[in-house]
Structures are given as structure tokens and as C-alpha cells.
Give the backbone structure.
Amino acid sequence: MAVMPGIKASSCFFLLLPLFITALITPLITSCGKPSAAGRNSSDAIEHPGAWLTTNGSYEVDLSWESGPQTGMNNVARLTVIPRGDATVPLQKITVTPWMTVHGHGSGNVQPVVESVLDPAAGIYRVSNIFFVMSGPWDLKIELSNGSGSVSDSVTVPVEVPGA
Amino acid sequence: MTLLRIKCAAALISMSAIFFISNGKSYACASCGSGGDEPLVLFPAEALKIHGNISVTPQLASTGPDGSTLRSAGPDRRITSTFAAGLAMSPRGFLTISQSLVTNSRIASSETAAAPAKQTESGLGDPLVSGRYTLVMPNLSRPLMPQVQVLAGYRPAMGRSIHDSSDAHLLDVFGSGFDEIRIGTDLWLGMLAVKPGLAVAVTESVATRHNNRLLKPGTLVRTTGSLSGAVSAGDFGIVAQPVKLSAGVTADRRAQATADHETVQDSEQSVNGVFLSADFPAFESDSIKLTLARQGAFGIVKNSVASTNWTMAWARVLR
């Protein structure tokens, strides 16, 4: 009988060990970090309603859908880049990257194609091959390159891809 | 709500059934093995064991931050074949290596554009090296003293991940894209007729640069509770040796991810699952195990995948 209390105490200790570890770790891993600033801009400073101000404030970007946004299809959008201040168009290079931020992935190597078939002199481009593998909250990260070829400005435009 | 009640009732009935069908004998053996991801667990008397399984997931349903099911253009069926080998390093510890072959299929092809050339693709998943060490051995004279194991594992990101996919429907995605390190503990009261088990495993992913972003999934904590017992199937004229039955629940909680060292809001994941398995001894050194597992069986499924897995496994003790 003298052994029994010892056994029970040890058993309780080992049974409670995983719960203790969970209780210890969970607050630590869920509370660290700070909210993302992500560069989404819908500042009062924009001159064109509905447009998005780039991170450096050199451009306003407007995105309208010609088809989509939908899952599982080749979505096409019209991208209008409006220069501000000393900034100019046409731009040397524009890249558009879909990214599902909450899931931490994009569309792999299936990347949108930016075409200068509309009116690049007026900053109007056609973006095709935008593929969303699932519905939900997506971002389109748009990077703008000037004459030197390096990224001069960028903006992240949120897109809600409908589920049904 | 009614469906949830039915699912919970089914899980409780399954677990309760073990109490009633257990024949009261105690079998000293390894833990349920569900605390880690290793597909096979060596029993104390086993020195070398090989294992193969095929797991069919007929439907995959991704969910968003609010728990709602998302419409997906990705794979909707997955078959995973896994081969593993376990080697005892001592009476208390063993190492396991495993490798999976993943086959992704897309059945629902209602899309009109960007249709994949293939509807099925196969590739190697991320391998796993893992080990267990028994800190406290089970003792027949002290049935309430649990067996205590520590477990550790390393899964290098070798399979093609979603970040390297070239298929618009992600049929060529077989790996996570992140090296993973796992540690945990597994407790098991193996000397009781109905053997409770409780395991906690913590998985840390190594930050990796994808798409010009330094990404790091949040830390994953998986808690597994199980009940197992043995029933003498010889009474039913099936096999002479007892059949081991296990049932349990899992709770996965993953903290928020980071991108370029900034926390991604609403990216935390949670999913709860249930499993039921039957381990049949066959011949002298072989065993067959059937497992039915449901991820997303109850509670909110947040930024995760709800799925049902049917697994048939075979294991042979070589030494």
C-alpha cells in the first residue's frame, strides 16, 4: 500500500506532461510577431477613385477584370498605371504575382503575362494567365520597373476570388 | 449541427466499443504510434521491420480563415504509397526512415481554360527520418505507470512543393517546401486492458525563400489521444492471435505564418480528426493494419484540409 501513492503521483506527472508542454508552447507561438503592413494602400491621397497607390507613391494602379476572377481558369485583367509627379509611362517591365497570403502560396511557376497590346503609352496593359487555384482572399503583387530595369515601385492589390 | 452530433456520437461509440470487446488481457507492445508521423513502430522484441502502405484520400476540401470550404482547382483525389524501415538501436530506441510516392488526381474538370494536359501525376514526397526512445519502460507490476517515449523526426523538403509547381492545378505538388523538425512525447498505459495513449508533437518548419519571400509556416502542435485494446478474433474463426483495435482523436494547431519576418494575419490553422484502426496479425511475422481517418471530423477547420483517408498497411518483422 505504501507504494501506491508514489505510483499515482508519477502517473499523474507523466499524464499531465504533454498538457503542460502544450499549455506552455501555445501562447508563445501564437503571440509572437507583429501585424503585417503589406503595402496595401487606399490612402486619401489617391487622385483616381478605386485606384491603389504604390508603396513609394510614384504611381496609382487600377485593376479591372475582363474575365474572372474565378478559380481554375485563365483570368484576364486590364491594368492601368497612372504616373504621379515625375514618374512616367510606359514602364520597362511589369510583373504580376498572385499570392494567397493566408495560405502562404501562390500559383507556382504559372505566372501571369503582362502584354502591351492595349495602350502602354497611356499606361494601360493587359494581364492574362492569372490563375487562382482556389477561392478565397488573394493578393496580386504588382511590381513596376523603370528604365534601369530594377523594381522602382510596387503595390499589392487584394482580390476576393468567389467560391461559387 | 445534427451532422456534428452524429460524427461525435460515432467517434464515442467507436472508442466505447473497444472497452466492450477487449478480452481483458494485457499485451505489452509499442504505443499507438500516432504521436509522430512515422508509419511504423517497433515492438520491444523487434530489431528490424519493414512496412508498406497505401492510403487513399478520395476527396480533399480546402478551407479558408473563417472555416468555410473553398472552391479548389487543385487535386481532389490523392493516393499515397509509403515504404518504411525501422531499425532498433537498443532495447529502448529505434530509428525509422520512410519515403512516400504521391499520386494526385483531378476528377472534377469543369474549367474551360488552362486545363491540365494530365489528370494524374505522381512523384516522390518528402522523406522522413525519425526516432523514438523509451524513457520509462512499461512494467507489469506497476500498471498505472505509463510508458514514456520521446520522439524526434526530420523531414527534408525534397519533394516538389506548391512553390515550384508548373501545373496550374497543382497536380505536381508532392512536398511541403520546408524542412521540418519534430519533437514530442508519447505516453501510453500499455499494461491496462484498455490502453489510453496521449502524445504531443511539436513541428517547427525552417524558414525558406520562395517567390522572393522568406516564408515560415507557424509552429504546429499536434495532440493525439487514443484508446487501444485487443480482441481475440480466434473466437470468430478468423485468426488465432488477438486483433489490436485503436481509436482516437487528433487536434492540430498551427500558429500564424510569417513572410519576410512579418506575421501573416489570419494564417493560423486548426483541424481536428478522428481515427479508427484494426491491426491483424498474419502468418508468423507479418501484420495487416486497416485505418480509417477523418480530418476535420469536428470543430472548425481553419486554413486546412478536410479529408477522409483509407489506409491499408502491411508490416513484416525481419529480425
